[in-house]
Write a structure and sequence with these properties.
The protein is mainly alpha-helical. Helix content is about 65%, strand content about 5%. The protein has helices spanning about 25-45, 65-75, 85-90, 95-120, 125-135, 135-170, 200-215, 220-245, 265-280, 295-325, 325-330, 335-370, 375-380, 400-415, 420-445, 460-480, 485-515; strands at about 45, 55, 175-185, 190-195. Strands 1-2 form a two-stranded antiparallel ribbon. It has a two-stranded antiparallel ribbon with strand order 3-4.
Length: about 525
């Protein structure tokens, strides 16, 4: 896809229609830089130090592979586990379903926004490019920094930990602790208990496995993601068919459900948190926009189709839980989906279904490693991240340096934290930047009205406005209910400001050196 060149040319910062370098260049030098930058925009190419040959990411993902990425990134283990947490908060089956529907409407509005942005700027980097071009280079950098340090590796660590939690249903010994440390923290009345179990190194092994798979090439990965997505949809379809056709006369044990600890609004917002965690991933397709075939058409179709299908599946499967189990049983269950299947097929059937859920979680982990490393790759290519992250594997044309980096951070998080500890600051950062992306879309409509937009968001400007307000409300709610962990996430985000100016200063210094060494005659 060709892009219109703004007046004054592109700067070396990909996608930013203004020059960020303070040095003076001759007309010939500037023209050469512009041509090289435009080539980088369309081919995402870099040079290797070994051969000097220009390498780049290739467009190998069709519409079905792209749709599979959206579905695979969204459907993990959360939909099989969180109904019990939600039930304890809102104490009504219909309220649980309403929360799922409202959350689905929010992410569908977000999918419309990302469809427009992805079709207009189908480049590797996703939100990094959208925010940098729509709001300013600092905001684009902060997204890339936070995504590389918190959101993507944190999400991978959460999924890997949840995957091993499901394994614990089949083999309880996996969750047995190896050692426990009680750490006394200032201003805390109770010591912090750090537990290291067998599941943690196994989860790290799962991270290593998906890293290796993504290292082998985007076409192979795309086909494998279609296979995994088909398996997880098949697992969900199985429980839907069994649940819908089951008789309502299945006996249920009577159990009491404790009253909600919050008021109605607080309970709704608290129940919305795991819902948005389950829907998380709808925005990931933009990060591989540079590898999607015919992105102007396929990106919007994949984003909207994939998100809509997941919303429908989530609402239906939660209805099935309450169709098979009493409300009190759902509220007290630790493995709602497995318990629901056990009511129909017995313990053996529940174990087979748990295996299917493990495959689902692995598929979500796999999709995260397909999209996540493209962000630090795009940043490093622009000189705003660690240099090794821009390395392209010469045979498979995958961002090998960024893949290894995300893998190492995710492994560190898996080995030092738990599912609950990682969750809060990851989601706080995620929804903060989702709100900023909605604002970037609105601003781009004003600052770049002539930008080619193969898809325009429906209901503009209300759609991005509603989505942005909802995203900031979710972040604010997370801050209120988990202030300490959200503060940790905020501290890491602010640390990125220092690195932004460090890399910007280093880039400016390098430009002066190049200018001084270049003959002017």
């Amino acid at each position: 896809m060709q892009f219109e060149k703004p007046a004054g040319g592109f700067s070396h910062r990909q996608g930013l229609p203004f020059d960020l370098r303070p040095c003076k260049r001759s007309e010939k030098q500037s023209d050469n830089i512009d041509r090289r930058t435009e080539s980088a925009v369309t081919t995402m190419s870099v040079e290797t130090s070994e051969t000097g040959k220009r390498l780049g990411l290739i467009r190998g993902l069709g519409v079905w592979a792209a749709t599979a990425i959206v579905i695979g990134a969204m459907i993990g283990q959360s939909v099989f586990l969180v109904a019990s947490d939600m039930s304890r908060e809102v104490s009504s089956m219909w309220k649980v379903l309403v929360v799922w529907i409202i959350g689905g409407v929010i992410v569908l509005l977000g999918a419309f926004c990302y469809a427009e942005l992805g079709a207009a700027m189908p480049e590797a980097g996703g939100d990094y490019v959208y925010l940098g071009r729509g709001i300013g280079p600092l905001w684009g950098f902060l997204f890339g920094w936070t995504s590389s340090m918190i959101m993507r590796p944190g999400s991978a660590a959460i999924i890997a930990a949840g995957l091993l939690r499901l394994v614990g249903f089949l083999a309880p010994s996996v969750t047995a602790p190896i050692f426990v440390w009680n750490l006394h923290i200032p201003f805390q009345s109770q010591p912090y208990q750090f537990t290291f179990s067998t599941a943690q190194p196994l989860a790290a092994g799962a991270v290593v496995l998906v890293t290796a798979l993504n290292y082998l090439g985007v076409r192979t990965v795309g086909r494998f993601q279609v296979f995994l997505t088909a398996l997880k949809i098949g697992a969900i379809a199985t429980i839907l068919v069994l649940g819908i056709t089951a008789s309502n006369s299945i006996p249920a044990r009577i159990a009491l459900v404790p009253s909600p600890a919050h008021g109605a609004i607080a309970a709704f917002l608290t129940a919305l948190v795991p819902v948005m965690a389950a829907y998380n991933g709808f925005q990931n397709l933009g990060a591989v926009g540079g590898e999607v075939l015919n992105p102007g058409r396929n990106l919007p179709r994949a984003a909207i189709l994939g998100t809509s299908l997941v919303i429908a599946l989530y609402v239906l499967i939660n209805w099935v839980y309450f169709h098979l189990l009493s409300f009190s049983q759902v509220a007290q269950s630790q493995h709602v989906a497995s318990d629901a299947v056990a009511r129909l097929l017995g313990d053996i059937g529940a174990k087979y279904f748990t295996v299917a859920m493990i495959v689902s979680a692995f598929g979500s982990l796999h999709a995260g490693f397909l999209t996540g490393p493209r962000i630090p790759y795009a940043m490093a290519r622009d000189g705003e991240f660690f240099g090794f992250a821009k390395r392209i594997q010469p045979r498979f044309h995958t961002p090998s340096g960024a893949l290894v980096f995300q893998s190492c951070v995710a492994i560190l998080l898996v080995l030092t934290g738990t599912h609950q500890e990682l969750y809060s600051y990851t989601m706080f950062a995620t929804w903060t930047f989702l709100g900023l992306t909605a604002f970037a879309l609105i601003r781009l409509r004003s600052t770049e009205p002539k930008l080619p937009r193969p898809f325009r968001v429906w209901g503009y400007p209300w759609t991005p406005m509603v989505f942005g307000v909802a995203a900031f409300a979710i972040s604010a709610n997370l801050w209120l209910i988990r202030p300490v962990r959200s503060s940790v996430g905020l501290a890491i985000i602010l640390l990125g400001v220092l690195f932004f100016y460090y890399w910007r200063k280093r880039g400016t210094t390098s430009s002066y050196i190049v200018e001084a060494a270049t003959p002017t005659g």
